[in-house]
Amino acid sequence: MSDLRDIRATDHDSNVTTSGASPRMGTRPRARSATRPAARALVACSLLCTSHVTGCVIPPPIITVVEEEYPPFISSDFVSPTDRIIQVTTPDAVTLKLNAIFDQNREDLLYVAWYSQNDGVLRTTTVPLVTEEDDPDYRNVFYTYGPDEVVVDPCDDVNANTRSDVVWAYVSDESWATTDDALGIQEQLNAFKVSYSWVLEFNVLCTGT
To answer: How confident is the model at residue 63 (pLDDT cuts 50, 70, 90)?
Structure first.
């Protein structure tokens, strides 16, 4: 069982940025361009001035602002249970929860998907921005989103006949490209995805099984 813990607990490290088969680390730029009418006005005015027309004032140059895009962030201080390996000894349902999710970029919402090694896709949803101020509220760097949770039944038809399960919480800043039991959770090409996982070890006597 120790080998199982080592393999599964490290299968998907939390907050590893991935994009299919090509990991994408760091940030990506997001450019905000000037409007086309303003660009046309600059060209027209420049042509008039070069034709020796007096009284023409050339507007200041159009500046493109590039905003860095950062991946969401899951902190181990804001999940429950805090133990990555959970011993399940009763038939009671186990609740896994992201108490808060963070992002350095101010988004309207983030996308969450829960995936089980045994049961496939458990749940997909969106979580709203809960920061009320215009500026980041966590460590003066991150905006806060969430929370969200999922419930795992140790005595469902699959878990009752297995000794363990691994459950991942995935978070992306874009809608999911794929949420499939066989293919897993896949993000959009230009999106960030981070994850957090728990290993559930079952030692439960389920009635009726």
So the answer is: low
Kindly state whether residue 208 falls inside one of the protein's structural domains.
no
Rounded to an integer, what distance in angstroms lies between the CA atom of residue 102 and that of residue 104? 7
d(CA 70, CA 22): 17
- Rounded CA-CA distance 143/137 in Å is 6
Could you give the residue ranges of the DSSP H alpha helices within the chain?
2-9, 36-50
Dihedral pair phi/psi, residue 129, rounded to 5°:
-70, 130
- Its domain, for residue 37, covers 29-67
How high is the pLDDT of residue 80? 97
> Taking the CA atoms of the chain, what radius of gyration do you get in angstroms?
24
The encoded tokens of residue 203 equal 């030692």
pLDDT band per the 50, 70, 90 thresholds, residue 78? very high
